[in-house]
């Protein structure tokens, strides 16, 4: 706190000092204070100059940091940390390099750590452990709990999936005796929420196979060199868990039509796709691993993945028709306390254009209406209200999306 004039102790004895002595004492004090003031001003100027220097440095580092983060990064593994720096080995080309790091970064690194490096091979950041990445990208379920009875309105699709995926797993000898190769990959395509994942899970359940799911979008937009390696890992995990159903969701993220641009992001997507194709091609003796892929964007797919021996069984999974919607309503209300006044055929008619996922949401919301009303029985009106609410929410979301793209 700054001293106020009242706090200042006077440099003379108020009672004893003469007027002259008081003036002299005050002049002396003034001189000292002026000298101190001068000194402080110098220090302040120095501090300001120093501050400016730090501000500039901060700006430079922030800029540098931003630049480092923006340019595409490569993945490498730390081999050795020594006095000269850190020896890293790049993924993909296996080239070794010695790179310098800051003291803070050095403390954080250990041999075998995965790091992201920039074009000049400077370490930009330390990455998660490989096992963590695998866990995030791959979902492994040893016994998925979806059965064919849980899927409504996809009779034809179900039969086709069973024939192409289940038969080769259950009765491989049939194919060898007849002398034909079982179909390799199955591609399910159709709008979101129509039961593609469910079909893959149900077939894994039926054949006691491990269900391994990976989303194409998780593989790209990450770090250069990672996508292809993860695809390799994925097939390895599948082989280790035979019999297995390998489900690649959103395959369009790694297998869309080639674009002309040559950005490193595109190159990375290409590399990931090439790895997928080579895994599939080199998988002639696929053993007990079946591959199912899914997409909402069939029109975007690169024809290369549809060639014979790859995803050569194409199964469309459309939105359910009237009858399908009625069955799906019945499936999702199986365990609900539904009143006799609920008319499923009428519900199916009402929910025109709904996907299976929409119907599931309507059933849950109808249950919520009953709970809010302190009831345990769900009436027809609850379903009607739920459908209206969900439609209104969808309209809101659509409006928001179009605003975002406007
Ligand atoms: N045909 C269906 N029968 C019963 N329930 C369904 C059906 N389709 C979707 N559902 C419900 O919607 C949920 C989501 O479906 P699922 O994940 O299989 O859709 P998807 O087609 O794989 O969607 P996405 O393309 O968005 O990945 C399911 O868990 C289920 O509750």
UniProtKB/TrEMBL annotation:
GO terms for molecular function: ATP binding; ATP hydrolysis activity. Belongs to the AAA ATPase family. Keywords: ATP-binding, Chaperone, Coiled coil, Cytoplasm, Nucleotide-binding, Proteasome. PANTHER family: 26S PROTEASOME REGULATORY SUBUNIT. ATP binds at residues 193-198, 332. It comes from the Archaea. Residues 182-321 form the AAA+ ATPase domain. It is found in: Cytoplasm. It comes from Haloprofundus marisrubri. Homohexamer. The hexameric complex has a two-ring architecture resembling a top hat that caps the 20S proteasome core at one or both ends. Upon ATP-binding, the C-terminus of PAN interacts with the alpha-rings of the proteasome core by binding to the intersubunit pockets. This is Proteasome-activating nucleotidase. ATPase which is responsible for recognizing, binding, unfolding and translocation of substrate proteins into the archaeal 20S proteasome core particle. Is essential for opening the gate of the 20S proteasome via an interaction with its C-terminus, thereby allowing substrate entry and access to the site of proteolysis. Thus, the C-termini of the proteasomal ATPase function like a 'key in a lock' to induce gate opening and therefore regulate proteolysis. It holds the Pfam family AAA_lid_3.
